[in-house]
Amino acid sequence: MNLTLDDPLWKKSTSTVGLVVTTDGSRVNVLSAEWTYFVAKAPISVAVVLHESNWTTDRISDLSEFSVTLCSDTQAHLADFCGSFSGRDIPKTSSDDLSLREPVVISTPWVGDGVMALECVVAQRVELPHYTMVIGLVEHVHGDREFKAPLVKHDAMYSLGKAVPRNQVTVGAANVGAALRVFAVCAPDASRESVYEVALLGDSGEVLAKQSIAPNEYGDLDCFMPVPSDGRGPVRRVAVSRIGYDTGFATPQSD
Fold it and tell me: Given pLDDT bands bounded at 50, 70 and 90, which one contains residue 69?
């Protein structure tokens, strides 16, 4: 059955859950934000998306800061709790399960025991239909380098499982004058000592040219290979292999 716009499409994908803390000086409130994302690296910024009905949405429109904790997979109960009641009606911080910690840069506390907690100043608000996206500039981070599995929402809540194996070389190729630009990637944990083997193939799959090429600084392949001019025909496909990975193929296109 095909998906339609009437389906809850967001449940078919994944999102990370954040615990957003705000304070107006009289009451601290914690809200579960199902859509919490990093949106920039430099300066590092995070966005939380808040429904118009949420008390936090009203509060944060007048505030210049907030904290957000990216939940670990041990905090699903907190995500449920903080998303099931409004801070207008009850003081959520009365729960013994909520561990609030002192901030370093801003004046808003943060929830402990997550993957990480971010102290943020409000950089921008983006008004959306029925929602507000609040973008925060991260001023301080709390956490350690020990791996904690993040809480992932995919309709229900999940912990991350095993890393997905990547055993395929993926290749692209473009005609650039009298040369072919060949670019390829495989898993980033591949040995930097392992070279790429590039083969240019003719009409019947015969090898017209072959070359061993070292990966670049990122472990990827990005090279130019001369198009053979010995009359054996045009290059129809490009094959790239690397030890331990399945060979990838591409059909050259015009750049």
Answer: very high
